[in-house]
Amino acid sequence: MGTPTADALKYPFDHLPGPGELQEIVPGIYWLRMPLPMALDHINLYLLEDSDGWWLVDTGIAIDPTEALWEQVFERHLKGKPVKAVLATHYHPDHIGMAGWLCERWRVPFYMTQAEYLSGLAFSRMQREHFSWSSAQYLQRAGFSAQHIEQAGARFAGFGDYIKPMPMAYRRLVDGASLVIGGRRWRVVVGRGHSPEHACLYCESLNILISGDQVIPRITSNVSVMGGEPEANPLKDWLASHEHLLEVLPPDALVLPAHNVPFYGLHTRLRHLVEHHEEHLLALEEACLEAAPTALELLPVLFKRALDENQLGLAVGECVAHLNYLHQRGQLERSLNAAGHYVYRSIDDTLPLRQRRHRSLADDQPPIQV
Q1: In CATH, what number is assigned to the domain containing residue 158?
Q2: Partner of 98 at 20 to 30 A CA spacing, among 34, 70, 86, 241?
Q3: Model confidence pLDDT, tens digit, residues 71-115
């Protein structure tokens, strides 16, 4: 987890909205929090008021308290106007869990980017039988034992238990497109890495960014490789997206994130996140100078705290994302050992790593090596 210095970001709100209550950000934009059944115990949702109804941005996870809290919002806070649209920033269950229920209840359209919508459909419908030889191979190559892989297969499932059946139609969001809500224009700004085509919303007239999970002030979003695409390079997408956001968004925007609290200091936070991952990349290169470790053995380089079973999968996915980035840039050599695990060794040890910066994000990516 990366955190800027205490005075680097500014937090304009002293109080959090209570359960089922709205807090006004500016007239026509409201902040709502919903509970999550995990260590990160909340998600921030946003309601945008239009002349003839309300837009809901993200939905919460499909657990009983969420539905009851939404009903409380409908009863107390809609000013006699209906919900007119539901929009999800990306496909993770805390963001789309209630989308199907909300769209059915109000008979309204669902807005999402194409890659996120299709990913949500796929992951919400996965069953035990979708754990294949390729799923097992991914875990083996990350360094897991045969026993662990067998246990992982027995537990394997999508996240259908946390998502109401998704809407069977959607309206596609694309980068650069605009939505007019409450007489204000909101531009879609797509980021990648945490998810394939994450939609942020920026209103120039208000200088407000609804950032979802793309930019969060006090924690770093997970950037993982998963078994379904073992040679993916999401960290390259993540870093390139942050460079893009630095170019197209102003430094003084008010950021409304999906977790923690609204803040000022967008460019400061974006630069910190890039530096955070840069430090991780350098640390992994250093760890692979003498030894040839597996991804599993490299977890202590990235995570200083103990990891429980629920955290282990995401932690390995994040480690593999960093290793794929370095390997595909020609900075790590990767080979299979006798146990079928990928092991890694640094290639360029001619300069002290702390004096070497990674090449430009615009460098060509070499072909994927199997």
Answers
A1: 3.60.15.10
A2: 241
A3: 999 999 999 999 999 999 999 999 999 999 999 999 999 999 999
